[in-house]
What does this fold into?
Amino acid sequence: MKKIKVNDIELAYARQGNGKPLVLLHGFPLDHHLWDDVVPLLEDSFDLIIPDLRGFGDSTTVDRPYTMDDYATDIAGLLDQLGIQKAAVVGHSMGGYVALAFAKSYPERVSGFALVSSQAPADPPERKEGRYKSAADVQEKGIGGVVETMAPKFTVDLRLQAIAREIMGRQQPAAYIGALKAMAERMDSTSLLSSFLFPVVIVHGDADALIPVDRAREVKASVPHSYYVELKNVGHVPMLEAAKETAEALKSLA
Ligand code: MLT
It folds into this structure.
C-alpha cells in the first residue's frame, strides 16, 4: 500500500497491472480490499488504481464534515500526482456516488465509467434521517450495530458475509460518521447521467437487498448506450459473489 498527500490528507492506494488506467472505488463502510477477488482478473487489462477513500483503510481519518465532492477531489489529486490525466472510474455503491461526483466535476478526465450496485438519486428524507441516526449511534456506541445490520444485507453467502464483516470491523468510527453524513447530503445525479458521452457499464445483482435492482434499470434507461449486466441471485457485492462476471463486464472499458 502506498500513501500520497492529497488535499488535507494522506490517501492510501494500491496500484497493480498494465493497460489503461482504471480506478476502483469501494463502497461503505469498506476499503480497497473489497476488490481483492477481481484485481487478478483485471490486472492484465488495466493499470489499476485502488484507493482507500478518506477515513477508510489506511487513509487519514478526518474528523470534520466532508462531502462526495471532497472524496472526488481526493481522487483527482491522486491521479494528478500519478501523472494520469484520464481514467476509467468504477464505483461500488457509495463509491458509485463518489464516481458520479467525479464525473460531474471532471468529465474531461473520465475515459469510461461504471456503477456496481449503485444508484443515481439522492436520499429521500426518511433515508437521510436514518443516516443521521446511524451516525449518532456510531458516535455513541461504536460501529458494531452498523456492521451487524449491514453484513446480512450485503449477501446471503455466510462466507462472504464474514469477509465483509472483517473489512467493516477494521474501519474507524469517524469514517462511518463522515461517510453517512456525506451520503445523506449527496446531490441527485439523475440528470447528470444524460450528459455521459463516455462508455458506461452497469453491474447489479437482482437480489441486492441494499440498493434495489430497479435503481440500476433506471440508470440503464437514462444512458441508453450503457452496457448493462444484471446478475441473477447476486446481492450487493458482485465483486465477491460473481467476481468473474463482474471483471468481464468491467473489461469492456479496456
Ligand atoms: C454502500 O454499500 O456503499 C452503501 O450501502 C450505500 C448506501 O447506503 O446508499
